[in-house]
Amino acid sequence: MTTPEPDATATIAVAARRAATVAFDHVTKRYAGNAATAPGAVEDLSLEVPAGKICVLVGPSGCGKTTSLKMVNRLIEPTSGRILIDGQDIARRDVTELRRSIGYVIQQVGLFPHQTIGENVATVPRLLGWTTDRRLARVDELLSLVGLEPAVHRDRYPAQLSGGERQRVGVARALAADPPVMLMDEPFGAVDPIVRERLQNEFLRLQADLAKTILFVTHDIDEAIKMGDLIAVMQVGGHLAQFGTPEEILADPASDFVARFVGTDRGLKRLALHRVGELALRPATTAREGDEARPAAEALAADPLGYLLLLDADDRPIGWVGRREMPATGTLTRALASPTSPFLDRRTTLKDALAMLVDAEVQAGIVVDRRGAFRGTITAEDITAFARPEATAS
Fold it and tell me: What is the pLDDT of residues 154-205, one digit of tens each?
């Protein structure tokens, strides 16, 4: 018997924060000959991921991280041990029902090439018997959520999209039935570094709203630090070398292997765990486009840096005006300003902020809010001072 379907909009709004705990209980996977050191083997893995958190499985090739991931949706069956979702042993669940209840995103996306984007996103809802109206509502909701205009992309085919767009569709498809758990196997590994960073940032923004439980596989420790609430560092033979928060792993590696894998630049990597919003912002001498030049020149004369930040009518930064460029009379125009400093927001990591400042060869970065309005500045000196152990100690 088919149960009555609730209103589609209400379902999406209410279910958007569904999540579940995932626990590995002494899970082992051995291949031919019972060789625990066989590539992909997993040995006595025990860890628990709280609901709504991202756990990143990271390690060298052959350490069993992808095998561990695939055991959660039973694409690979464990040799022994249990995997529990919200306390229920997944071995006792129907495998088809289990897989339909778990979102799955892979590196090559795996979209069906002869189906439209909308049909791809609606794959699991269609298998679950959702009505047409409910599927269409969910497709448009999710395409908008991942930054793709439904009217533009819904009826296109995968070959008509860029790699980054296809990856977004893959995320939308994984979210379609509102799964409490998502598995992501190197999801951003097949795109170029610029697109990869943008996708990472967009996904973290989505996760802040959706709060799914996510197991995320990568070989890149920098990606693990950026994406993970928790990190499971694995080593060849499928052994769990360390499990903890990024801060714990960077501050106190559990072994020489973990220390080598994390790298000698642990202090720099820790900057990826902190954001611009944690710093006290510096003020700047400002004026608006169209203001009289004389009072602005007087304010600039007293500025120790010798630069005034020109803003538009909505307080959005246009660029810096130096003492030499400042006219004595007349009005201020955008032609006077040099837009050299990078724009940062409060969510920008300190590592990214420092890299942007060094790359732009400037003293200060301009911090803006979500509307793009000026909020203050930070300098490379501010960031390096924050990074000192005494500054970040609890």
Answer: 999 988 988 888 888 888 888 888 899 999 998 887 677 887 888 888 888 8
pLDDT, tens only, 381-391 = 999 888 765 44
- Whether the Cβ atoms of residue 307 and residue 285 lie closer than 8 Å to each other: yes
Give the chain's domains with CATH numbers: 8-265 (3.40.50.300), 277-392 (3.10.580.10)
What are φ and ψ of residue 344, in 5° steps? -125, 155
**Those residues with Cβ within 8 angstroms of residue 343's Cβ, 6 or more apart along the chain or in another chain:** 317, 365, 366, 367, 368, 372
Tokens of 356: 């942007």
What is the band of 281 on the pLDDT scale with cuts at 50, 70, 90?
very high
